[in-house]
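Dear colleague,

Following up on yesterday's call, I've attached the two folding results inline so they're easy to grep. Please treat them as preliminary; we haven't cross-checked anything against experimental data yet. The first protein's sequence and structure tokens come first.
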Amino acid sequence: MRKPYDLPSLGDLACFESAARNLSFKMASSEMNVTPAAVSHRIKALEQELGQPLFNRQYRGVELTEAGALLFVSLQRGFEGISDSVARIRNRHDRTAVSIAATTAMSGLWLTPRLAAFWKAHPGVAISQIIEDSGRAQGVDLSIHYGDPALEDDETRVLFRDRILALGSAHFAEAHGIEQISDLAEVPLIRIQSGANAWTDWPEWFSSLNRSAPKGPEFSLNNYLIGLKAAEDDIGAALGWEGLLGGYLDSGRLVQLVPEAMESPYPFYLRIHGRASANARLFADWLAEQEPEV
């Protein structure tokens, strides 16, 4: 019987996708739980079937050919769609419920404190929070992001656009004599490096205020809440979104170190995923009406 799709072996394609994504046969073998020789064999078989090379083999690694890059992009799109469908099937629930994905920081600082008010207004709608710091949540109705909503294919709602402040503990400010921006140039600074969001960093903050990049020591973290804890513990200064951190400022856990602030280049926005339920849209509209706590 003739195959309905003109495709090579799906196993070979999956092996190629892993090797292309990692640009490493060795890493692909670990991910696929096979030997590097098996990965090489499968990719050679795929190249023979397609009649052209997919990788340029080099002494220190591999790189995609033009044909390899074309195939990789197509496979990645297809696998992402399949992954989303599988996640929806696995997580299928009563459509009166709403699932929403957010980072640990956004969930703890902004989303969770608002849920009680939503439930009082809409007691029949159950909310399922998915904490996802990679930014790749699958099978959800809604997700919260920091960035440019115009880049999304799905419908979006802007939640808020914030000011970005230089924050630290009162003890840190006193110990380093911080009163103006120049005082921040050489003090320890906390940097948040996360794949989930393109967080605005210190060089951008200083540049927006027409100042040179800081020269002080850096303390890097990949979790925003832990970064705030480090700032509370006098380790360094951290950048903070005013609307997210009103509770920290009101309680004195952190203080604004200098009067100047940067207008955030991006908003926090809500992405409404395809097939979102009516209740998900109701929740999306409600969230978009909420004001940041400043």
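Below is the second protein, in the same order (sequence, then structure):
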Amino acid sequence: MHTHSPRSSTPIGTGSQRETDVPSISKIETGKRLPTPDDVNAWAAATNTDAGELLDLLDRARLEYASFRERFVDVAGADQLQDAIGAAETAATHIAHYDPMIIPGILQTADYARELLNLPSGPSQSGATDEEISRMIASRLRRQAILYEPGRDITLLIGEAALRTRVASPATMRTQLDHIARLSETLTTATIGIVPFTVEARIATLNGWGITDKLVTVETDAGNVEIADPEHVNRYWHHTRLLLDVAATGTRAATICRGIKAET
């Protein structure tokens, strides 16, 4: 969102309205900082414009701006991106993940994460070092502490294909399945759901997603796509609820995991 104003020493707004000087305007126009609600109100007053729609756009822009800045975390190392994801989850009240083909990172065992991340399709293809991958695993395990903290609404949905796709050794897959089964039966601060092959699909999707409050992250091979548009975020929450309606949870989820383990 661009806030246009005269490039002169004349401030936006007059009288009791908040003044915005030219250096601040320049920073807004070049994307170095977002306008404040006072900036928007002053601009609207100076141009006789309704500020309501602009303030709505500002709320959306704040999320887009925050997610845009987070994309640059990976230049400091792939492990730093995991820390950024963990920070976003810690700050969120409502969290959801759906993964049709891979166990969500927040549920991975250390061995599963290690073997997954060391595949040719893993972060090494983007230049991550062995040391960075080890730190990624440690950060991913730290993220899991949030599963035991009260005060959040956490929903973790896994497609049955994710339980059967052998991205790790049989022994590691069996341990991973045991881990999910145990959490499904014992966790009281998060809901784990398995979407079985046998249920009627409520949606068709090519990718999984993660949601933290009002931001959706869709992971692709080329990088993460972050979506903050309220209409699309609501759509992903709706899709999450549709999947949860048909998912097996609690002891039913654990039974599915143990049945697949016996076949592995």
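For the second protein, one point worth flagging: The first strand starts at residue 94 and ends at 99.

Best wishes,
A.L.
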